[in-house]
Write a structure and sequence with these properties.
This protein has 307 residues and is an alpha/beta fold. Helices cover 37% and strands 14% of the residues. Bound molecules: phosphoric acid mono(formamide)ester.
Length: 307
Amino acid sequence: RRHLIGIAGLSPQDITELLDLAEAEVAVSRQVEKKKSVLKGRTQINLFFEASTRTQASFELAGKRLGADVMNMSVASSSVKKGETLIDTAMTLNAMRPDLLVVRHHSAGAVALLAQKVACSVVNAGDGAHEHPTQALLDALTIRRHKGRIARLVVAICGDVLHSRVARSNILLLNALGAEVRVVAPSTLLPSGIDQMGVRVFRRMDEGLKGADVVMMLRLQRERMEGAFVPSVREYFRYFGLDAAKLAHAKPDALVMHPGPMNRGVEIASEIADGPASVIEEQVEMGVAVRMAVIEHLIGLSAEGNT
Ligand code: CP
């Protein structure tokens, strides 16, 4: 059984193969008849301990388009509410012999721990501030479709890097494929050790966006901040919110990305989110294709199932 816990652990070749497979899944998803039967008889369970729109919906669609039986476990109405632990919940589901568990959890490392306990494949759909590997893969697919490559592109990842598993997975993937990665954030929203992650750090948007091919905005995760460290929305937007004046520092054909959900008027102006440089909706479409590729790679006909 194989897992996808993070971009860490994937080689550049692994990443490229997944992107190539996802490219083929884009074509499937654009057909009138979207369904394949490669996962006929396989069972996928989505187990989300944190809220999600894009990731959960696209994993569900991805499994169904591959022909799997997909169950969304409703954590809010499950026995987790009676105190059942993550591992007991996972082992209970494991006893029903799924082939794949897709797990989102608020604690970094929780999905890796769970993967050691169960007999099926596990995909990390986001664990705390650690990793969100399928998000980084869908972002890379979106970039590659527009720019034809990842290598040597200048990608500026901006905003709340401290709380962002999206930033972490993207930094790992973009570095693996040879991009020049920058992070642009106030000091209070940078994790310790960022200097060791192979990025150039900027504290001003005009400097960090200069000549960028891709501007990737991050959601300000106010719910994970405490009291005095929650910046005022007006001040944050003034210095770090992406508007036309700041975007003008990037290349004229720069792509604007955001993993969602967006805080309009906080980290990004609506005119930019909905403007010609934005590929935010395309990211969502690529999310289904990438998740199809990951699932097929892990539990498709050539992979071992939970037998
Ligand atoms: N980008 C992302 O993970 O969005 P959701 O939280 O809606 O799944």
